[in-house]
Amino acid sequence: MKESDKVFAGSIPALYEQYLVPMIFAPYAADLASRVAAAGPRRVLEIAAGTGVVTRALVDALPDAEIVATDLNPAMLEQAQSVGTARPVQWRQADAMALPFADGEFDAVVCQFGVMFFPDKPRAFAEVRRVLKPGGAFLFNVWDRVEENDFADAIGDALERVFPDDPPRFMARTPHGYHDAATIRRDLATAGFAEPAQIETLAFRSRAQSARIVAFAYCQGTPWRNEIEARDAAKLDAATDAAEAEIARRFGSGAVDGKIQAHVVAVQA
Question: Given 24, 134, 249, 252, which is the most exposed site by the fewest CB atoms within 10 A?
């Protein structure tokens, strides 16, 4: 993972919330929150909360639970807080590598599409295990390989044509770079989770009103933008145009619909 992969700054948090949350994150947030609620936890920690899509779903699914939502990135937390929740939650900046909580504080820990960004995944998983009560649940999801996710795959191909000598590979490298079930199970075991992890592959449909929205969301509302601008800031609009053309070529020029696919992981402390 490159350092730029972790930079969600400038206009990225707002664009991420406006476009990507409804396009690809919302259905998985509802699914993850329902799985957490089934365990009936009283105190829940969310790590890598981003702009709060899962936080809001947890508030709805767990009306009586205490929820602590954390993220390493202040800009993402600020965006989450500006959107708000239906009832108060505790927002905290926190590094998943060194969680600022005592042992056994939580009944459940949840993370949506965040573990791929952890530089040392077994270490982060060990921190999760430490703050969980015995028998507590750790639930998270990760994207499947990029080829199983239509829009990200198409835009990656378009950007290869814009930058043939050094294609921006953020999406394949990091968001879609931690999809191997054996690796996930190994990292959890290394972290001290003795129980075998349950991994379910879950597909949804991603929809947008136009190819332009998809291209703009991915090229300018994710750290893909950092990679594009690092190569040539003047080509950001050209890269977005190329992505739009590829989405339109594959999925049509009107409203578009593509497959998204992820793994949902559950393990007990």
Answer: 134
